[in-house]
Every structure is written in structure tokens, then in C-alpha cells.
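Record minuted for completeness.

…
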Amino acid sequence: MTALTALIRRDIRIALRVGGGALIGVLFFLTVVVLMPFAVGPDLALLTRLGPAILWLGALLASLLTLDRLFMADHEDGSLDLIVMSRTPLELTCAAKALAHWLAAGLPLIVATPVLGLLLNLDATATSAVALTLLAGTPALTFTGMIGAALAVTLHRGGLLLAVLVLPLSIPVLIFGVSASQAAITGPLSFGTPFSILCALSLVSLVIGPFAAAASLRHGLD
């Protein structure tokens, strides 16, 4: 457990450095949200209706933008081979790295959501609902994306393959995340049903993701 804690701290420190990826994701999220009102126009009612979808789409793309560094840095400096050969189960190591990535890159997006929601004409209740759904859904994006990152780490131009693999798997999370946000803001659907499915998707990815990523790493590094 001490080794996993040290790994999480190390990955968070690397991600928070300049060029580590965490800041890039937040800046990309900010850019998407700031530019969208210029594209939609001065219709505040339309902007309010589209606000949850814009925030969710920005968070999805920002998460995808930083996923390629999940294993790539370790592969480039050779530490990934040491991680695979260590006594710590590779599945737990993958889960720890995904947790560190979510803390460094996913959690700042959630924290920024209430502020960025003001740019989309969302009130405090609406931005709180979107932030809650992002809190429940972004772990699914991270643990699902970890599988693609593990598959792409040993391939030339693996970043393109990562996007092709991860985006289809992220669509259910996007659908139920936006549905839960819209239900909390406008109704008439119940908030509980899509939010429960969103939580279930995160739990399923939490179970499947580390095992699939570990298998992909073992196969790719053999």
C-alpha cells in the first residue's frame, strides 16, 4: 500500500508540473466554454439549455486530451517496465495511476464548473447539478480511457488510436451525464434514474478498467 501511495503522489506531482498535462486540460476546458457563447449567439435561453451539454462535452474532450500521458511518460523513461515487473499487482498499479490522473486532471474540471457555468447563464442550482454529475461521471472517463492509453502506449501515433478507442466508450457516460444534469435543471424526467446509471458506469469502469489495462500492458510489453 505504501508503494501505491508513493506512486499516486509521484504521478500527481508530475501532472501538476508545467507541461505535465493537468493545466492543459483545465485551459482547454476553459477555452471551450468561453468560445461557445460566441458561437451560440446572444440567445440566453438557448445558452442555458445547452449549458450542461457544453460543460460535459468540454470535460470529456479535456479528459481525452490528457489521457495519452497516463502511461507514455513511464514508457519513455523505462519505469513502465519496472512497474510491470514489480511485486505489486499490475491491476492495483493501474488503478492507482488512474486515480492520480483523475485527482490531477479530472477534479480541477469539477472545481472549475461552478465558475464556468456563469458564462453559460446557469444559476447556482444548475451548476451544482452539473458539477455533481461530473463528480460521478468523470471517473468513468478516466478508467475507460486508461484502457485505450494502455493499448496505445507502445504504438507509433498511439494518440490517434486512443481517440478512436475511447470516444465510443465515452458516449454512454456523456449521454447519461447530460440527461441527469438536464433532469435536475428543467425536468420533467427524474434525476435519480440517469444519475444512478451514471454512477453504475463509473463503478463498472472502476472494476473492469484496471484489469483490461493491465492485460493490455502485459501484452504490449512482451
User: Anything to note?
Assistant: The mean pLDDT is 84. The CA atoms of residues 14 and 166 lie 23 Å apart.
